Amino acid sequence: MTTPTPRLLSTLAPAQFPLGLGCMGMSDLYGAADRNEGLATIRAALDAGVTLFDTGDFYGMGHNETLLAEGLQGRRDKAYIQVKFGALRGPDGAFVGFDTRPAAIKNFLAYTLKRLNTDYIDLYQPARLDPNVPIEDTVGTIADLVKAGYIRHIGLSEMGAATIRRAHAVHPITALQMEYSLMTRSIEAEILPVLTELGIGLTAYGVLGRGLISSTSPGIGGLAPNDFRSHSPRFQGENLARNRELVDHLAEVAQELGATVAQVAIAWVLSRGPTIVPLIGARKRVRLQESLEALSLKLTPADLARIEAALPADAVAGTRYAPAQMQMLDSERRVA
Question: Is Oxidoreductase there in the keyword field (predicted)?
């Protein structure tokens, strides 16, 4: 594999390894996971030079943070940890709202620091916009925690262009976390231009379409009841059949390029700009290795045109979340 070119997360943060490891699936939302394999994958990522590790305090209700802490044991200084907070869970695992009040933020952070066995978080970001708390109050509280030394950088997740501007006016925002892939390109119209203007980086999740862009794409019958994709519109009936057909077209292009569809999808996201860091949700070392090999795939303008023609975003069937969840996304609200 060729030496990877570092990605600049923003004008405020240090250069990053081109890919980050998203750890959510090791604890939650994608069905059962092998704990030991998850730990081995975290360590293999470190060995490969990965620096960015993404988690959330509500992933497995704290389990993901403790797992990541164990995986990073003795090597915390090699990792750039970003944590999402604010999503509330019930004892049955259901999502029951968001809370980014100042006192709640401090409480969430206290538990996060304990679980991660660290005295600071590299980047801290609300998982969603709390409709009951002005974004200025949320960012202002995090800014105070930056001054106190508990947090290095401030991020946002799934927020729209207007909200990003308001937040950035309070304190410089280092990165926005958003779903971005061949299947999900809605951020290109309004959000990406704002990030470029303000010098904010992007950590892109869902780069493989939640597993749809894969040689082992799951079918609805193969999903566990506790796998949130069993309720995702893109994995339902005719939508799933249509989306698989699109991936089959992409697979033909990938074969000609001597790569897997996953590698092509990752390389496509990398081609979108030097301040975009794809988050790879690998739960196993074999999937991590496949993703890392995408760094050697250099796409020409002609390749990119063929890839986008094979899987045009406007041909994808179904929204990326169920209707109720879509309504919670500030990023999906369009500026008039």
Answer: yes
Strands (E), 267-329: 276-280
Residue 36: left (phi > 0), alpha (psi -120 to 50), or beta?
Answer: alpha
The string of DSSP letters for 173-241 reads --EEEEE-BTTB-GGGTTHHHHHHHHT-EEEEE-TTGGGTSSTTPPPGGGS-TTBGGGG-GGGSHHHHH
CATH fold of 10-330? TIM Barrel (3.20.20)
| Tokens found for residue 59 | 């992933």
Q: Annotated catalytic, 180?
A: no
Question: Sorting pLDDT into bands at 50, 70 and 90, what band is 229?
Answer: low
Report the candidate in 196, 125, 129, 130 with the shortest Cα–Cα distance to residue 154.
Answer: 125
Sorted by where each begins, the domain ranges of the chain are 10-330
Query: Which residues make Cβ contacts (< 8 Å) with residue 124, sequence separation at least 6?
Result: 82, 83, 85, 109, 142, 145, 151, 153, 154, 155
Nearest-10 Cα torsion for 94, 100, 106, 107 = -20
Q: Could you say which of 30, 59, 150, 180 is catalytic?
A: 59
User: What are φ and ψ of residue 48, in 5° steps?
Assistant: -80, -5
pTM, 2 dp: 0.92
